[in-house]
Structure formats: C-alpha cells, structure tokens
Amino acid sequence: MELDETVVNRIAAGEVVQRPANALKEMIENCLDAKATQIQITVKQGGLKVLQIQDNGTGIRKGDLDIVCERFTTSKLREFGDLASINTYGFRGEALASISHVAHLTITTRTCDSVCAWKTSYVDSKPVGPPKPCAGNQGTQITVEDLFYNVATRRKALKSAAEEHAKVAEVVSRYAVHNSRVGFTLKKQGDNGTDIRTPPNSSVVDNVRTIYGPSVARELLALSSEDPKLKFSVNGCISNANYSVKKCIFLLFINHRLVESTALRKAIETVYASYLPKNSHPFLYLSLEIDPKNVDVNVHPTKHEVHFLHEDAIVEKVQQAVELKLLGCNTSRTFYTQALLPGANTVPAVSEKSSSDKDDGGGAEKKEKVYAHQMIRTDSRDQKLDKFLTKPSVNKSTGDDEDFEEDEKGNSGTEEQNRREIKLTSIVTLRAQTEANCHAGLRESIKNMTFVGCVNAEYALIQHLNKLYLTNTTSLSEELFYQILLNDFGNFGILKLSSPTSLYDLAMLAVDQEESGWTEGDGPKEDLATYMSDLIQSHKEMLDDYFSIQIDDKGNICTLPYLLDDYVPAMEGLPMYILRMATEVEWNNELECFQAFCRETAKFFAIHRNQATEEKDGENGWRWSTEHLVYPAMRKTLQPPQHFAQDTTFLQIANLTELYRVFERC
Predict the structure, then answer these.
(1) DNA mismatch repair protein S5 domain location, by residue (predicted)?
(2) Distance between alpha carbon 454 and the CA centroid of its chain, in Å?
(3) Which of 355, 392, 486, 545 could form a disulfide with 620 if both were Cys (CB 3.0 to 4.6 A apart)?
C-alpha cells in the first residue's frame, strides 16, 4: 500500500525537526545565509507554543513565497555535484517544509527593493491564500506556533518547557560565539529582560564572557593551526589549567556548521586529563576549516554530523595543537594564599626612613587625605524611625475577604528545634545551583545597601557606597522567595485562610482572565477547571508535607506557606497561581517538579507591577512591605544570580564621583 503524501511528509518532518531547538537551528542558519547582522529570537514554553525568529537579511522575494515551504526547493545548489563545493548552511530545502507539516508557520519578509513587506501563512507546505502586503523592515520574520500540534506522541515525549528553553538557549549561545559579527538576542515572550544578548561586530572572547561568564573568558588560550597537506586549519579558544567545569563544554564548528565529533572530544579530553583534577573538564571552542571537497555534509537529517576524509589524521593534528598550547601552562597557574590570619595585629618594622616620616605633632603617622567626592554620604546601618512606629499584622484582612492566621509553631513557623533536615537530591542540587550562580559583586551591593525609596510597585532605589541604583523589585522579590522556598523546603509555617476556597472556583476565575490565554479551541472552561482541580488534589499529600498547602476532601484550599515574617501576598493573584500550578509544573519528574513549583510560588508571592493600592493606614501595603520586609530579607539572604548583572534588574543611574565632577564646574 502506498502511503498518503501527508503521512510521508510528517514522517520526514519528524526526522528533520526533532524538537524546538532543531527547528531554531535550521532557521538561524537560513538567517546567516541571508547575510543577517542582527537576529532576534522570541520563544514561549520552550518554543512549543511560539518560536519566532527575525533577521535583517536580504529577505525573500514575493515571487518565491508560493514555493518557499515546498520540499526540495532551494536556491543554494542546482545539481548533485554542487555538494562538493557547498559553502552555505542549507542546501536540501527541507527545513521550512518540515516545520510547516508539524506547526502553524507564518512568514513576513521584505527585500531591499520592495516597497512593503509580504506576509503568508502555511499549512503542510502550502500557502493559505496569496501573500498580503503589510508594514515591515527589511529582512524576514518567521513565526512557528503550536509545534507538533498534530503529532501528539512527539509532543508528549518532549521534556518540560524549561528544559526545551535551555536547549534553545544552548543553540543560540553556540552560534553567537561562532558568529561574533552577528548580534543575537534571545528572550521569552512577555518578559522585559533577555536571556542572551550579544552586540554585532564583537569578538569571540567578548561573547564567551557575556554568555558563559568572565571566569572562563579570562582563562582562554587562543588556538591556531593548519596543515596544507591535509587541507585543513583550526582556530578557536580553549581553557587553560586554571579553569574546569563538571561537564565538558565543547563548541565545534566544521566549515561553520555546528556539529558533534565524539572522536575529537575524547582525544582532547585525554590531553586535559594530565592537567585537570579527576572528573573536571575544559571549555573548548574550535572552528575547523576543511576543503569542501573532502567533507560530506549530507549524512544526517539535522546535519549535526558530517563525515570528512583523513578524519583520524586531522583529529591527531588538533590533539597535538591543543597539547602544544597547554604545554607548560602549570607555570602560569594562579594560587591564592592568606598572608595574615584574621584578627592578627600588624607590627610594621621601624626603620630610619619611617621614623623620619612622622610629623612634628606628637609623632602620629600621616593619614591619607580623603577628598570630598570620595566620601560616602550614608551608612548601611542607618535606620528610619518609622520602622519602629508601625508594623503590619498578618491577622488583618487582605482586602479580598481572605483572612490569615499565623501558625501556632511560632513567629516564622520554622523553629530550629522542630526543623526537618531535607536530604532530597533534587533540593540539594537546586540549592547548589543557586549558590554556584551567585554574583559576588551584586551580593556585596545588596548586603551593604541603603534603601532610598520606592519608585512604584515594580521599581525601587537603593544606594551602595557612592552609587545609586534603580532596582527591579519584582525580579528581586521573586528570586528571594524562590531561594526561601529552597532553603526552608519542608519547614514552612502556614497562612490559614479563614474561609477555605474551592480549587474549582479559583480555576474558573483564572480561565476567565485574559492573562490565561484561553481560546475556544482549548475546550469548555468547566472541563479545564475540573481537570486542574483534580490534578492538584491528586498531589495534596505532597503539597501539605513539603509546602504547607493543605487541601481538604471537598477540594478547598485551606492554607498557604508562610515564607516571610509579617508578609502576606496579594491574593488577587491566587487564581492565576492555581492555573499555573496545574499547567506549568512537570509533576512526573522530581527535580523539575520542585523547581517549577518553587518558581511559580515565588511569582505569586513576589511584589508585582499591578500590586493593589495601599491600605489607608499604610499597613500591609506594598510600599511598607517593600521597604521593611522584602529588602531587609534580601540584605540577609538573597544570592543574586549572574544574569541580574546583565539585564535591567540592577541599573546604575548616578555615581557620586561623576556628579561631583559635573557640579564642581558650575
């Protein structure tokens, strides 16, 4: 029996597009083939819901839009012999065709000689109507929605949205390092910040520093070698013996294609075994240029593997180049020593010169003069009187007819004598990740900050030393509560609702909100609410044991975790919290479950832009909570992650030294 053409195309599409990251890789390569200098990627739910890429390349001609998603339509080769000299990323014309068979695809494009942009949607390689004129910049924007909507088995087999997003970020990171002349941006749909942002016309080392951190960037060694006989050359950067990670980071490009080579990886790690501790691995970025006639690129549907002539000899040459670069690197290792024990007194040697340097006024040594512009105007230990005048009580109503009572365990509900020791591997791993990702400079700034005031519910001003910062309270408070949930896991007090609330009613309220994104295609609201209520109730024992969320036999939520003394979250966000608890948490994987659940709970507890207005007496309002509860808690425990130093969470808006230079001219 001959298979239907639709079935054949979907089978072929499953080979090319295995997950969102594969689809993105193909589209990034198309952007680079179009000579783009700026590529922006936007994703939602790891690319399963939305995967959009926009470039400023040459664009697609209007006349080609009818066949652009047809299989085996390409402008990059005309006959089989062209594969021997192919120097573009794509050549089979399968990427967009495959995507259109398993997703809803929309292309908006404009060439330099076109007066407007043209927009077309595709289903199963065929355009849905003629191209429509629209406004747009030069280049191409491709939007992929509902990936694998018609392949239920593939969609279920994929990991969580968080893991798919991580794989998407990995692809973007690797292409951003190799294509340093191109600016890359990766963000989640709806987020203000970006996960990855690299400027155009930067260097490889700068992009490594931006994406992988300064610790690896300052330990890189430039590698360069070539062999005319084998017709190949290699360039790149490798880490020296001062740097190591638990898992090898290997960025390999052959003729500018992102590929994998197990043989080359093992050969290089064999060299590093003599320099690094056991179970430690290097950072490697290598770009191999091999004569196209010696490379077969058509050996894998996703093109992540290639075959080339003289493979063993080339691997050996690269291994020798790495070994030669590392030879003698032990002489440059950096070791830190403690010159003086804490608390020891310094007794300087008295010499004739030092005796003569004493001034005439009693023999005291001269002190270095502190200039006016170097003085710090505030002290991080200063406190305002109003901190001692008003203090909100958690027994007061939240304004939404939800009253809370403090747990009888005590002030915070986590007294040391009753504290359980949690040894779950997943929680220990998440705590370790938080500690390893802490930015030391920001931690110092938060620890010794002076709170200046609130701009609004989302932003606040703080001062550290002689610098004034505009901080994103929403991002900071979310990270604070996430870390509290990890550190106090299984030891929370309870916030008791005076009137238990039905999970079904909360789910219905959430689905009715525009923020939920409900459409008629998702099914009846009542069925969705029942599904969410049943799903959460099926895990009520775990929620009670670990998170102090008690659910009675009637499906009513009775308590919430008590995370911060005197702090009560904004209860208008409870319906969406229940919805996201049911839809965003991967309940079948322990680590992913706890990580996603803690993240969603932290979002619910965080102070948001649309926070409710303050009470008349100022108690329990977001302004009071921000200054007297949230930021003091940050000062004590928050370990700010690395990306806070790169996005707009911390934004320096004034520097006393620079201001002094300006005003002294007046």
Answers:
(1) 208-327
(2) 27
(3) 392
Q: Which pairs from 385-394 meet CB under 8 Å and 24+ separation?
A: 387/628, 390/617, 390/618, 390/619, 390/624, 391/566, 391/619, 391/628, 392/566, 392/619, 392/620, 392/624, 392/625, 393/566, 393/619, 394/495, 394/566, 394/567, 394/568
Backbone angles phi, psi at 492, to 5 degrees: -85, 150
Q: What is the identity of the amino acid at 600?
A: E
Instruction: For residue 200, report the phi and psi dihedrals to the nearest 5 degrees.
Output: -70, 155
Rounded CA-CA distance 312/481 in Å is: 53
Q: What is the pLDDT of residue 309?
A: 75
Does the structure show a pLDDT above 60 at 119? yes
- Using CB atoms within 10 A of its CB, is residue 243 exposed (0-12), middle (13-18) or buried (19+)? middle
- Please tell me the distance from the alpha carbon of residue 346 to that of residue 349, in angstroms, as a whole number: 10
Pick among 1.10.10.10, 3.30.230.10, 1.10.8.60, 3.40.190.10: CATH of 213-328? 3.30.230.10
What's the pLDDT tens digit per position in 475-533? 999 999 999 999 999 888 888 887 888 999 998 998 888 888 888 877 888 888 898 99
Tell me which of 143-152, 366-375, 416-425, 618-627 is least confident: 366-375
Q: Are 497 and 403 in contact (CB under 8 A)?
A: yes
Q: Does the pTM exceed 0.70?
A: no
Q: In angstroms, rounded to a whole number, what is the distance separating the alpha carbons of residues 92 and 481?
A: 49
Please give the structure tokens belonging to residue 429: 């791993």
DSSP label at 513?
Answer: S
The CB density around residue 109, as the number of other CB atoms within 10 Å, is 27
The backbone torsions φ and ψ at residue 441, rounded to the nearest 5 degrees and listed phi first, read -65, -45
Q: Does the domain formed by 5-209 have CATH 3.20.20.450?
A: no
> Angle at Cα 29 formed by Cα 204 and Cα 77, nearest 5°?
130
Query: 650 has which bridge partners?
Result: 471
For the chain, domain boundaries: 5-209, 213-328, 397-652
Q: State the alpha helices, DSSP H only, in 513-547.
A: 525-537, 540-547
Residue with tokens 């932003």: 459
User: What are the pLDDT digits (tens) for 80-100?
Assistant: 444 444 455 544 457 788 888
